[in-house]
Amino acid sequence: MQLIDLSSPVDASFWEPDPVSHTPMSPAEGARHMCKEMNEHFGLNLDPDMLPDGEFLNNDTFQLTAHTGTHVDAPAHYGSRAAYGTPRTIDQMPLDWFCRPGVLLDLRAEPVGAVGAEGIARAIDRIGHSPAPLDIVLLHTGAERHLGTPRYFTDFAGLDRDATAMLLDLGVKVIGTDAFSLDAPFPFILQRYNSTGDRGVLWPAHMLGREREYCQIERLGNLDALPRPYGFRVMCFPVKLTGAGAGWARAVAVLDEP
């Protein structure tokens, strides 16, 4: 069995619109902290110097949004109401959605902006394999080359409404992308809205989630390491954040044969 990591890191050195804060706690600090907490909460006294090298239990504190790094968007992320009922939060989603055969679609030749249904059709035709119901579709846009920089948030290809609907019509419930968003970049969307006044161009892939229940995996990585466009399984279980609209995930491809 071969495992391929499809996740991008959470790294406080990366440029982010909502910066990540990382406060490490050394093993020596951890020992002092643990002894202090034991005394305060349980009345137990222990001198940190009694521990080997005066060290124990280092710890790290991160402050970040649930949409930082590789993460799964739940239907609740798209709004508080949906045509199919109350949208589910990430802790309510069925686990079997996130362990399924994967299909990799290459969109690297598509320009910055929104890919339409014809672009998805071309990508499916190139591999000669159409996604089956509940397959996890991974979109390889090439956006990862800008990871950690401002361009990661502006220079990529997303999906328009018709492209997203096309995949959902095939029975897909989870669509993943190596880009910041399944929708087109914010500047592209706002430029189209300002020029047309059409509210339908405002994040149509996300908005479709108010009509049809599905999940997105955003900010995948290492998609170019996949040796073939299908014939592998994707595992991308989201962290169980109660009541949240998203959860971080360690996405992995599983190949039974090299």
Please trace the helix and strand order, writing H or E for each element.
EEHEEEEHEEHEHHEEEE
* Principal-axis shape: elongated
Describe the main β-sheet briefly: 9 strands, mixed
Which spans of ≥5 residues are poorly predicted at pLDDT below 50? Answer: none
Strand content: 15-25%
* Overall radius of gyration: 21 Å
Lateral strand order in the biggest sheet: 1-13-11-5-7-9-10-4-12
**DSSP helix fraction:** 10-25%
End-to-end Cα distance: 8 Å
> Helical stretch count?
5
- How does the helix and strand content classify structurally? alpha/beta
What is the assembly state of the chains in this entry? single chain
Short description:
Helices cover 20% and strands 22% of the residues. It is of the alpha/beta class.
What secondary-structure arrangement, pairings included, does this model have?
Elements: E1 2-5, E2 21-25, H1 27-42, E3 59-63, E4 71-73, E5 99-106, E6 113-115, H2 117-127, E7 136-140, E8 157-159, H3 161-169, E9 174-177, H4 186-196, H5 204-207, E10 215-218, E11 230-235, E12 246-248, E13 252-255
Parallel strand pairs: 5-7, 6-8, 7-9, 9-10
Antiparallel strand pairs: 1-13, 2-3, 4-10, 4-12, 5-11, 11-13
Helix pairs in contact: 2-3
